[in-house]
Design brief:
The complex is a heterodimer of chains A (316) and B (322).
Chain A lengths: L2 E10 L3 E10 L9 E6 L7 H15 L7 E5 L4 H4 L25 H13 L4 E6 L5 E10 L3 H8 L6 E5 L9 H7 L3 E8 L6 H17 L14 E2 L3 E7 L4 E5 L6 E2 L4 E6 L6 E6 L4 E7 L3 E2 L4 E8 L6
Parallel strand pairs in A: 3-4, 3-5, 5-8, 6-7, 7-9
Antiparallel strand pairs in A: 1-2, 2-4, 6-8, 6-15, 10-17, 11-13, 11-16, 12-15, 13-14, 15-17
Helix pairs in contact in A: 1-6
Chain B lengths: L1 E8 L7 E8 L8 E7 L5 H19 L6 E7 L2 H4 L25 H13 L4 E6 L5 E11 L5 H4 L6 E6 L8 H7 L3 E9 L5 H17 L14 E3 L4 E5 L4 E5 L6 E2 L4 E6 L6 E6 L4 E7 L3 E2 L4 E7 H13 L1
Parallel strand pairs in B: 3-4, 3-5, 5-8, 6-7, 7-9
Antiparallel strand pairs in B: 1-2, 2-4, 6-8, 6-15, 10-17, 11-13, 11-16, 12-15, 13-14, 15-17
Classes of the chains: A alpha/beta (316), B alpha/beta (322).
Bound molecules: zinc ion.
């Protein structure tokens, strides 16, 4: 049985408090043990992480004797947003994941960020579960800034995900939860999977296995490591972006993320008004289509998909 | 005056998004050039108003033969948002002023930013009319971020009372001012007003300051009255008064008001019981530069920012001693 606590409370103007709740599982003896934070709902329209939190909580409730470390579950960071289909912090309309590490002396979103960092400070690990947004569907993947590659890739490989994407550092991303936590010594992985506003059961179970495996490796759970998949590593190839060439209605030709060949049809952009097919979207390289558009209305430039293809001549 | 489309982007169903520019002055002029960017956000109505007012003003001045440089005014970048009460790009909710320098092969708003930035590159001066990024309102002030390429001298020609001069934050590297400066345009922002509204005093002040700048920098051949000698502020010279409680917020002062230490500047009431929760007193003598502008306030929100006379004196004295 986990201990449910309200770890952040901020008074709202009219008879309510903003709150972040945590469910903590800990062994009887708490000294000298590792601590992990499972985090979801920094974006209020992303719900896959909620399901993972549920599955993990359910597992821990049935296996209390296996717990050797502190496991903190935070299903809803942007709790106002989760309960109202709002991605950003309502009222302020600020993306919480662009305001870290935050500050006590600043507006509500910054206070929330500051509170989150302080509550999780001291965790050895944090897993920040995102589910893309309402526009895109993603296969389970971990995204890592280049500067953190050495520390984080071995950890990501334990998570039973399909893809590890190491990307170049972007200054804007210095304002994310993951960056703030990595800076203070908490090894933090960002998982992206599924699509906003929806829940995919299979991905939830896949990541649950990954979390159990990671915790087994780190001695947080007293269980045998699981037999997990080895994710494809982004450094062995390149990512190709498919952006809409014209506005219209995107009709995918492929239902799920999958391996496709160069030149295959990913979908069509059609005109609902004239009945014409405006553009045929062709894969520029072969590889794994790890992102596909889920929301059909597109403008020029709208992202339709991302393909990871191994670099030419690579024998792997 | 030449009116033209800088961006024309087709939409799946609505009319195309057009970003229109208004260009003044001779094409081959030797005079300096300036670009002025208005509403990038759908709630920057003050900014839209100042920019469109400038277009009309400059049209007349051009007819009078008073334009000696080259001036581009872009009143509205995000007409789509303005036309539907949204703040950001209506489909994906991205903030256009977080997309710079843009990317021609990228997402829709990166492409818009890229085309816009392509047009803005190469100007000698760049003015960004900005609203606030929080729930506040403020006196008109110049925001100049330190990119390594900023020009503090030129902003003094606006003759505005306050220049906020400070290091840039990480998110600001994706904003227009920073990128414009990196491309060697002397770019700065004028931040003013309350989003979603028009304040006649503030907008008049900003209009006058811009005209003064144009005149002093030989872009407009027209005499103007002198403005203020600018006070250069940084975060160390500003005292913050926060709400210790959430509730209904009643301000007792206006932005720009000079206040004494201990003066009552605001009150917070319990929104249900009506009980007075907090009487907010000024911690110092100074000028209210900025205050919370929504009637409902959150716990720990910044209710007031006060430029402190004492802090400014202390810092300046220390500097002189060195
Ligand atoms: Zn997210």
């Amino acid at each position: 049985m986990g201990l449910i606590e309200e770890v952040i409370t901020i008074e709202l103007p009219v008879g309510e408090s903003f709150r972040i709740q945590r469910c903590r599982y800990a062994p009887k003896k708490e000294e000298g043990i590792k601590r992990i934070s499972i985090v979801s709902g920094i974006h209020g329209d992303e719900l896959e992480g909620q399901y993972v939190c549920f599955l993990l909580g359910q597992w821990l409730r049935s296996n209390p004797d296996k717990i050797r470390g502190i496991i903190d579950i935070y299903p809803a960071i942007n709790s106002l947003g989760i309960d109202s289909i709002t991605r950003s912090i309502p009222f302020y309309d600020v993306d919480l994941n662009r305001i870290f590490p935050g500050s006590k002396n600043d507006f509500l979103p910054a206070q929330i960020a500051d509170g989150v960092v302080n509550v999780m400070r001291g965790s050895d690990f944090a897993i920040d579960i995102h589910s893309s947004n309402v526009f895109l569907r993603e296969i389970p993947q971990v995204r890592i800034a280049k500067s953190q590659e050495e520390i984080l890739v071995p950890l990501a490989n334990l998570l039973n995900i399909d893809f590890v994407w190491v990307h170049d550092a972007v200054t804007v991303l210095e304002s994310t939860f993951a960056h703030a936590m990595n800076t203070i010594g908490t090894k933090t992985l960002v998982v992206e999977m599924g699509v906003g506003m929806r829940l995919g059961k299979a991905y939830g179970h896949q990541l649950l296995d990954g979390l159990l495996n990671l915790m087994a490796h780190e001695g947080i759970l007293d269980i045998e490591p699981l037999d997990v998949r080895m994710p494809i590593q982004s450094h062995v190839g390149e990512v190709a972006y498919l952006n809409a060439a014209c506005p219209g209605l995107f009709v995918p030709a492929i239902e799920h993320c999958q391996v496709i060949e160069k030149g295959s049809v990913v979908g069509h952009i059609v005109s609902a008004l004239s009945g014409e097919v405006m553009d045929e979207v062709i894969a520029p390289i072969g590889g794994m289509l790890f992102t596909i558009r889920a929301y059909p209305i597109v403008y020029e430039g709208s992202l339709l998909g991302r393909i990871f293809g191994k670099t030419n001549g690579d024998s792997q | 005056m030449k009116r033209f489309d800088i961006v024309c982007l087709e939409s799946p169903n609505r009319s195309p998004l057009r970003i229109e520019g208004f260009l003044f002055g001779e094409e081959n002029t030797k005079g300096p050039s300036i670009a002025i960017v208005g509403a990038m956000s759908g709630d920057h109505i003050n900014q839209l108003y100042v920019a469109s007012g400038l277009v009309e003003y400059l049209r007349i001045k051009e007819e009078e033969g008073k334009i000696s440089g080259r001036i581009l005014v872009i009143p509205a970048v995000n007409a789509y948002a303005l036309n539907m009460g949204e703040k950001n790009w209506p489909l994906d909710k991205t903030d256009l002023n977080m997309m710079f320098p843009g990317y021609a092969q990228g997402e829709t708003t990166q492409r818009i930013a890229s085309r816009l930035f392509g047009e803005l590159k190469g100007y000698d001066y760049g003015i960004i009319l900005e609203g606030r990024r929080d729930q506040g309102m403020c006196i008109p002030y110049v925001k100049l971020i330190q990119s390594g390429y900023e020009d503090l001298e030129c902003v003094k020609d606006l003759g505005m009372g306050f220049v906020h001069y400070r290091p840039h934050e990480p998110v600001e590297t994706a904003m227009l001012q920073y990128n414009w400066q990196l491309w060697e345009t002397k770019a700065f922002s004028i931040v003013f007003g309350k989003n979603g509204s028009i304040d006649q005093n503030d907008t008049d002040q900003v209009h006058t300051a811009i005209v003064r700048f144009l005149s002093k920098r030989d872009i407009l051949d027209f005499h103007v009255f002198e403005g203020h000698k600018s006070n250069i502020l940084d975060p160390n010279r500003i005292i913050i008064v926060k709400a210790s409680r959430a509730g209904i917020f009643i301000s007792k002062v206006r932005c720009g008001t000079a206040i004494k230490k201990g003066e009552v500047i605001g009150v917070i009431m319990d929104a249900l019981s009506g009980k007075k929760l907090e009487k907010m007193l000024s911690p110092c003598e100074g000028i209210v530069t900025c205050q919370y502008a929504h009637p409902l306030i959150f716990q720990n929100s910044i209710a007031f920012r006060i430029a402190s006379v004492e802090l400014c004196c202390q810092i300046d004295t220390k500097r002189e001693e060195k």
